Amino acid sequence: MTTPKLVIFDKDGLMMDTESPVFAAWKEVFSEWGLPPLTKEFYARFIGMDGRDNIRQMEEAFPDADTSELLMFCRDRSRVYLQNNPIQTMPGLFELFDTLDEKGIKKIVATSSGRESSRLTLEKCGILPRVDAVFTGDMVERGKPAPDIFLLAAKTMGVHPSECLVLEDSNAGVMAAHAAGMKVIVIPDMTIPTPEILALCVCKCVSLFDVIELL
């Protein structure tokens, strides 16, 4: 693989283990609302998507519920969970940062999450000082799987999409990176990549340690 000029990190489930506590928060809200028990399979449909797509999926699943309010409750409960509990970074993250620094490769975050929640978790985990920029879902018109956030990031950083490497854990993120004309490595967390998704990737890695070996 050609050495990239820019490595783009997804945030949740890729840089930090936020999906597990957020899943627990959503389960509580679903129970309180009298909805069917939340399964990991259903929750995985929302991973990597922005709020607009989440609302649409909720409307399809629960047409009689106030889905905007439901998602607001889920986000608020998730924020409380993340504020009041430790957040673990994924194995190999800071070692990969060190390797990219040694090689002079820029590194940024591109997440479907909003600015406020992203800053909260990135600061809490000590990631914010280590990256060159952060791009959030509210900075673009269309969220993943549309390529908008990746194209904005590449343009802002002055790097051609073909010279970017995206690290993603979600199917939506992989599709967005591929649509942007970027190389992408998938490191699955709660989402299991389909054969079609794997075909869009340079490779699948078990952890961020594996990425170091590929640079």
At the fold tier of CATH, the topology name of the largest domain is Rossmann fold
Given as residue ranges, the uncertain stretches (5+ residues, pLDDT < 50) are: none
Structural class: alpha/beta
Mind telling me the CATH class of the largest domain? Alpha Beta
CATH superfamily heading of the largest domain:
HAD superfamily/HAD-like
Strand order of the largest sheet: 3-2-1-4-5-6
Give the overall silhouette. Answer: globular
Structural account:
- With 215 residues, the protein is of the alpha/beta class.
- The chain has helices at 19-32, 40-44, 51-61, 67-84, 93-103, 115-124, 148-157, 171-179, 195-198, 208-214; strands at 6-9, 106-110, 133-135, 164-168, 183-186, 203-204.
- The chain folds into two domains: 6-17 and 88-214, HAD superfamily/HAD-like (Rossmann fold), CATH 3.40.50; 19-84, DNA polymerase, domain 1, CATH 1.10.150.
- Strands 3-2-1-4-5-6 form a six-stranded parallel beta sheet.
- β4 (164-168), α8 (171-179) and β5 (183-186) form a beta-alpha-beta unit.
- The protein is globular.
